[in-house]
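hey team, just a heads up i'm posting the complex here instead of the shared drive bc the drive is being weird again. everything in one block, sequence lines first with there labels, then the predicted structure for the whole assembly after. its two chains so it's a bit long, scroll down
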Amino acid sequence: MRVRFAPSPTGALHIGGARAALYNHLAARGAALQGEPSQFVLRIEDTDVERSTQENVEQIIDALQWLGIDWDEGPISQVSHEARHREVVEDLLARGLAYRTTAAADDVRAYKDEHGADKGFRGTDEGEGAIRLHVPDGETVVHDLIRGDTVFQNVHMDDPVIARADGRPLYNLAVAVDDIDAQITHVIRGEDHLSNTPKQLLVYAALGVEPPIWAHLPLLHGPDGKKLSKRHGAASVQELREAGYLPEAVINYLALLGWGDSDDETILSRAELEQRFDVGKVTKHPARFDETKLRWLNGKYLRSLSVDDLTARLEEHTGRTGLRGAVEISQEKISTFHDFWPLAGFIFDGPKVDDEKARAQWLDEEGQRVLAQTRDALAALDAFTLETVEQTLRELPAQLEVKPKQVFQSVRVALAGTTVSPGIFESAALLGKDETLRRIDVAIGGGVPAA
RNA sequence: GCCCCCAUGGUGUAGCGGUUAGCACGUCAGCCUUUCACGCUGGUAGCAGGAGUUCGAUUCUCCUUGGGGGUACCA
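-- predicted structure starts here --
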């Protein structure tokens, strides 16, 4: 099995594209597991030289590598096949399978007005103009691993333009020729290509080459059912990465978006996916990309990481260092990298200053009285550890005859500036005795945290 | 307009003629609990509609409706 991923080099790796890449990759790796020689070819090219910039190509490669999708051949990043394409076009012309015509969109419309809206355009050889392929009578059947057979009546098909008047090749010719040359056996791509497949099949037939096995994936939509775009939030892998998701979670989520197994497992490792994935079982209907479940999955993966591993990733993502202690006490409370700083940032940057409500409720007269007592109790500790801090704080409510919540929340607001934080014993222990007492002092002195 | 594809709860899916229609996310309730989470328990919610075929349709066929794609001298 030889499959390829051939995105248009626009720079961003669209989520739908990433899923197509993943499915190709899983199909190849899965087949390899069965002992079948398999290759995954990466081809980033365009008949439009302008768009195929090195920068765009590199962005896609980078996104693919982040996801952990590797390739056996490629990437082919240049418009390197034009000569070959021209050669094929000349051959088709010479054999009378294609012809030149100056007919443009208006002429095609006029033709349909005359012959019927469902009749495909048929031109005559004028010896100049764009090059169109002759569509023969009959029908063209697309055999698809996911959809079964789809029959297209050739009468409905316009003679497709395969090259511009200046000889530069067009997509439908280029993909077919490139896939033939690369000896691709399975073409797994988005459903948006299904309607154009008959045109490509015509090229295969004209060249006398056995076509590959097709598999057209359903498209991805946004949460509202409309085409996925930036206004839905993240629409590309780069944006997902920036939003603080783990590549493992993204892969797992994408694999399950449009494909399901009779097995009910949800959390699947790369190895399990390679083993179980079956293109034939991909759904036929479009799926909505909804970040809610991705967040949940991401949290699952994030919590399963070792503290060291998570710390390293978080330090890379935030550009800060010395995060380990904070990571350790925050891990079970966050589901993406972006949740980390809002939760634990106070440890490094001081208490939050904008939560007036929390301060009003917990640093009022009663709160300050409790904090004063708390401060004394903590100050008396020789060893300021998680155990001693916890023991001390737990004894306070009874001694002061207040509810436990009064003590814990007042301390929390004094240390963090807000009512949401990692465990309070853990936070105090991490801050250390001096800093903990300092923050409590500041809170008692009027509740205004120091800079 | 023309051609093509698709249709199970709010979302992602399992199901492949007979099931109490399963699982996961979400949501709701409860438990746990120093906050927020995590975790656990339980609940809620679905076969788009209409004709057939059949002893029997979520499952097969057709129509309607709805959604999507294609229709460039774009990819």
